[in-house]
Write a structure and sequence with these properties.
Elements (H helix, E strand, L loop, with lengths): L1 E2 L5 E3 L3 E5 L5 E5 L2 E3 H8 L3 H20 L4 H8 L3 H9 L6 H11 L10
Antiparallel strand pairs: 1-2, 2-5, 3-4
Helix pairs in contact: 2-4, 3-4, 3-5
Length: 116
């Protein structure tokens, strides 16, 4: 990110936020964003990251127990293979709909994917 002078905004190298009608911000490519929103949107809480990693590890565990490749799980769940990879790596927060689809494809209860 590159900080600008005067207006205390930053420019995100790839993504930024632009004002939305409701006063929030929408993700946009290469837009200036107020400094206070940089901290709010880019500083992820350690607990959130930890939960995302636990979820990804559990998906991988159950997938490997079934001897499924990421591609096979993706097809069974109706999602993209890259989505499965990102979830297992903990770099992607799964959509709620995808959580249910993945659990169903793995034959496990949704709660099992969140157990530490």
């Amino acid at each position: 990110m590159i900080a600008t002078t005067g207006d205390q905004c930053r420019l995100s190298g790839v993504w930024g936020f632009s004002p939305a009608v409701d006063g929030g911000y929408l993700i946009r490519h290469m837009t200036a964003i107020p400094e206070e929103h940089v901290v709010q949107h880019f500083d992820e809480d350690d607990a959130i990251i930890h939960r995302r990693l636990i979820f990804g590890e559990n998906v991988r565990h159950y997938r490997q127990n079934l001897s499924l490749s990421q591609e096979q799980l993706a097809v069974a769940a109706g999602v993209d293979r890259k989505t499965i990879n990102r979830i297992e790596q903990g770099v992607h927060s799964a959509r709620l709909d995808n959580v249910w689809l993945i659990a169903e494809a793995l034959g496990v209860d949704v709660r099992d994917l969140f157990v530490e």
